[in-house]
């Protein structure tokens, strides 16, 4: 049977119009939500300096109104669950995104996945990367899972849509496991952990290039469907991308989670695909290796070596290089001239052979557990030894907490202890975006955005609130 995907015209964030469109979409697709309903938006970050990174509150407002009209008394509870990115407490992002007000007005509840118990779910797909994955308890308990991604480009996976949105169900402890050259495989694994009942993609204003700091692209569309592969396939075509080049989509389709072939998908709605494709010709991506991306742009230069996994020996798309790009773009939102104002930094990643030919005042960040280099710095012999562990060697039951404060103070202390050294080796696989911000701040002498007055107090209030509720949830 063919999967159906609907593309509807929607030019602005007006909740009543969104509700009418989503209700029509549910009717057309035969979706009738029941029981405990869990909505999963993309709220990777929300802040005045990150205005286009998240599913908008007005969109959630419209979807909840549509759900209530469609399901009536069949609804037991509506939860809106997410784990924000870069270790920022989800409470902080929800507040900034305006979710709290919308949820309270609609008698729906926030569900912060970083505060919930994490449950190990067994996987059985023959092509799986791992045998089990951790997901938050409320995801395992809902009767109806509704995926509400934001339509965005992504510097690691080209696009982030409904399949990739599931990365946001994992807490900090488990999110970075396999968040390296296996990221696309991990996204495919996640599809086995939950059955999606309905998808509505916020493409009213889409995001281009980056995932945390995208530039806005008015796309004027809402895309709906039930099958995530079918929805992501149509979304790829909407921006003139061959869906087979979205690796996690191809993997998910190969594993039997849905179609990638247009012959197996029926398109409906009131916005013809051809018209959208023409309108979206200028949609911008950023899939560039960091050595060319930062070449001649300022005081950051990159030396990229080779990587341990044979399927991506020339580059690690899901790990440290992309995290560096995102971190620099975060700084740019605060200090647009950051690449000029920072001290000279060389970023070295992967197995690198030969001298680095540093400028006299240039310092080095050796990034990640796979990085190896041997040579002479300031007349001294230096050997950076890789401690990369393959997927089989990483036990998802024994992972570091990746706590926000521990990360900030850990990396700052490490930089302080190496103040007089030419280099620092940032450990991790991957070194997260958050850790990159801290290392770059110290080594490049850039003000740390974590200490920006707009963030310092609210983020710490949210952090301690999160810690308290996480502790209390242990006893539930
Ligand atoms: S250490 Fe970084 S660059 Fe190396 S494999 Fe891991 S994530 Fe990729």
TrEMBL record:
It comes from Desulfomonile tiedjei (strain ATCC 49306 / DSM 6799 / DCB-1). Residues 37-236 form the DUF362 domain. InterPro entries: DUF362. This is DUF362 domain-containing protein. Pfam families: DUF362.
């Amino acid at each position: 049977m063919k999967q159906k995907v609907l593309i509807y015209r929607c030019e602005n964030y007006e909740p009543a119009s969104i509700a009418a469109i989503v209700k029509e979409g549910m009717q057309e697709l035969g979706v009738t939500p029941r029981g405990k309903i869990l909505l999963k938006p993309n709220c990777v970050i929300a802040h005045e300096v990150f205005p286009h990174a998240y599913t908008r509150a007005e969109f959630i407002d419209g979807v909840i109104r549509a759900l209530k009209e469609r399901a009536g008394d069949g609804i037991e509870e509506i939860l809106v669950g997410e784990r924000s990115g870069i270790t920022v407490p989800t409470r902080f992002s929800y507040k900034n995104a305006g979710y709290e007000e919308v949820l309270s007005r609609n008698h729906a509840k926030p569900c912060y996945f970083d505060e919930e118990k994490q449950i190990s779910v067994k996987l059985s797909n023959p092509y799986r990367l791992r045998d089990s994955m951790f997901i938050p308890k409320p995801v395992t308990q809902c009767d109806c899972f509704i995926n509400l991604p934001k339509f965005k480009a992504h510097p690691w996976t080209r696009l982030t849509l409904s399949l990739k949105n599931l990365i946001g169900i994992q807490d900090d402890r488990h999110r970075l496991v396999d968040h390296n050259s296996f990221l696309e495989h991990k996204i495919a694994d996640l599809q086995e952990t939950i059955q999606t009942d309905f998808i509505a993609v916020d493409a009213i204003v889409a995001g281009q290039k980056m995932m945390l700091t995208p530039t806005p692209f008015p796309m004027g569309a809402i895309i709906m469907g039930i099958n995530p592969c079918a929805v992501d396939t149509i979304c790829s075509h909407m921006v003139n991308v061959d869906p087979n080049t979205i690796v996690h989509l191809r993997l998910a389709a190969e594993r039997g989670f849905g179609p990638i072939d247009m012959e197996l998908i029926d398109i409906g709605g009131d916005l013809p695909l051809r018209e959208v494709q023409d309108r979206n010709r200028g949609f911008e991506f950023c899939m560039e290796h960091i050595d060319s991306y930062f070449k001649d742009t300022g005081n950051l230069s990159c030396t990229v070596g080779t990587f341990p996994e044979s399927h991506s020996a020339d580059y690690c798309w899901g790990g440290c290089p992309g995290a560096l790009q995102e971190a620099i773009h975060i700084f740019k939102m605060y200090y647009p001239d950051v690449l000029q104002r920072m001290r000279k930094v060389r970023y070295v990643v992967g197995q690198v052979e030969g001298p680095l030919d540093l400028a006299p005042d240039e310092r080095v960040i050796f990034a990640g557990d796979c990085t190896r280099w041997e040579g002479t710095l300031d007349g001294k012999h230096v050997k950076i030894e890789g401690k990369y562990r393959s997927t089989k060697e990483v036990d998802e039951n024994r992972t570091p907490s990746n706590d926000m404060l521990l990360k900030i103070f850990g990396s700052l202390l490490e930089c302080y202890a190496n103040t007089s050294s030419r280099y620092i080796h940032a450990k991790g696989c991957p070194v997260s975006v958050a850790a990159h911000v801290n290392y770059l701040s110290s080594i490049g002498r850039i003000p740390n955005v974590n200490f920006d007055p707009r963030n310092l107090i609210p983020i710490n209030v949210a952090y301690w609130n999160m810690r308290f509720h996480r502790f209390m949830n242990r006893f539930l």
